[in-house]
Specification:
- This protein has 230 residues and is mostly helical.
- It has a single domain (17-227), classed as Fumarate Reductase Cytochrome B subunit (Up-down Bundle).
- The chain has 8 helices and 2 strands.
- Strands 1-2 form a two-stranded antiparallel ribbon.
- The longest helix has 24 residues, at 44-67.
Length: 230
């Protein structure tokens, strides 16, 4: 009698530490940004600071998506339309490993959030609330551009980000209670029990040091951009 499939599974590193830290720091920073932006007043300075952190994190993730751990690389969760359709029909092949990292539906959420966060950061950098606060790059754009950016940042941009965050949370809850798959645990520990032969993400002291240096470089670049505002 053959052994159950679960017996061939082993603990496999899926999310490297830099990716996990990116995920949780970004989540906390988005919450902080929304709260401080909503309250305003003396907390608006923290709204700007949260925005700069998000800017730094996005720059880091863009580079880490090219050189990071196996499942953190964009090349491993950019799917063709045909693959997405087969996934929706439940016709995936075992060698595709579509449910190990970001599945085809999850990848849309990731790219949408990164894209809209980038727009939100960009509009915040040139915004002008016409009271006492302007983005550090406001002086480089026209008044009309600043007004349009501010309107987007305070209205559509904010609500789209909130909708994407809520969609992300809803998907996690659906998988947890509907499909009995805990997506949070691997994002905390980094590991999943997966069939033998599943590619593992590299997560060594060397790659973590590289990520730390990359994060510092991204923070330095953001600091330079912000300083351009004088």
């Amino acid at each position: 009698m053959s052994m159950p499939h679960a017996a061939t599974e082993s603990k496999t590193r899926v999310w490297d530490l830099p990716t996990r830290l990116f995920h949780w720091v970004l989540a906390l920073t988005i919450v902080g940004s929304v709260v401080t932006g909503q309250i305003g007043g003396g907390l608006i300075v923290w709204h700007f600071r949260c925005g700069y952190v998000v800017f730094t994190l996005l720059l880091f993730r863009l580079v880490w998506g090219l050189i990071g751990g196996h499942w953190s690389r964009f090349s491993n969760f950019i799917y063709s339309p045909g693959t997405v359709l087969r996934y929706l029909r439940g016709q995936t092949r075992p060698d595709e490993h579509l449910d190990v990292g970001h599945n085809p539906l999850g990848s849309f959420s990731v790219f949408a959030l990164i894209g809209f966060l980038a727009v939100q950061v960009g509009t915040g950098l040139v915004a002008d609330d016409e009271i006492a606060n302007t983005g550090p790059l406001n002086r480089f754009v026209s008044g009309a551009t600043a007004n349009s950016a501010t309107a987007w940042h305070k209205d559509w941009g904010r609500w789209i980000i909130l909708a994407l965050v809520c969609l992300h949370i809803a998907a996690v809850l659906y998988y947890l209670y509907g499909k009995k798959k805990n997506l949070l645990r691997p994002m905390l520990s980094g590991d999943k029990a997966l069939p033998a032969g599943t590619p593992a993400a590299t997560d060594t002291a060397l790659t973590r040091t590289l990520a730390l240096l990359l994060g510092a470089a991204c923070a330095g670049l953001v600091g330079w951009v912000v300083s351009m505002g004088g």
